[in-house]
Amino acid sequence: MAGKEKAGRRQPAARRRTDGSRTRIVSKEPIHEQILPHIRRDIVLNRWAPDERLPEMELCEEFGVSRTPLRDVLKILEVEGLVMLVPHIGAVVTPLNPPDLAEKLEAMSGLEQISAMKVAELQPPAALREIKRVHKAMEEAARNGQTSKYYALNDEFHRAVVLGSGNSTIAKMHETVMWHVSRARNYANEREPLNQSAAEHHDAIVDALEKGDPEGAARAMRNHLAEVIANVLDRVTAPTSRATDQEMEDTAA
User: What sequence ranges are listed for the domain HTH gntR-type (predicted)?
Assistant: First the structure.
């Protein structure tokens, strides 16, 4: 049995399609490494809400795996801070804690400001082309009211700036913190309609990058993210505030 499990670790994981059939993901990595990015992405996209328990049996069926590799995934997600492993309950998605989130948003802002400065200074042709391509696509998505597409492109835009810096350490740090930031952004954006001028906020960033103005690029990124951070924190904390107000009204009544 142990030998069978060991051999199975390197078999391809499978995920159910909408028609009920399964499709291969990859074929070389251990099973838990194959399914980890998919479950992480689902958490970031708020398939499961904060404080919601992950359905282990459903996930095993979805990916065509046993509980052993799934639990290996859940342990990694716990280390990353995306789930809590609660005795007798299982894996629960971590809550969006405003103080912790504020720290991560601040770290994201710092990393992206440094990256913008580096891109403006180095002027990497491929990176600048990619940044402008994504920016144009964002503008089109905003004009067409394609909310989900716009926010996916938004993440792509900021990631392109970070990768354009050419600093692998910054890129790795940014990737880790963005799992949490993107989850909060997606949660907040679900409660806010897309502003048609949203993509325009990135104009100043692109302009400074093209002009080779490091200080201007950092300033434009800082100003943009200050507004983003304020909006995300406000929307994440608003439901709690409203609930507290209602409780106070009920108590007074």
Answer: 29-96
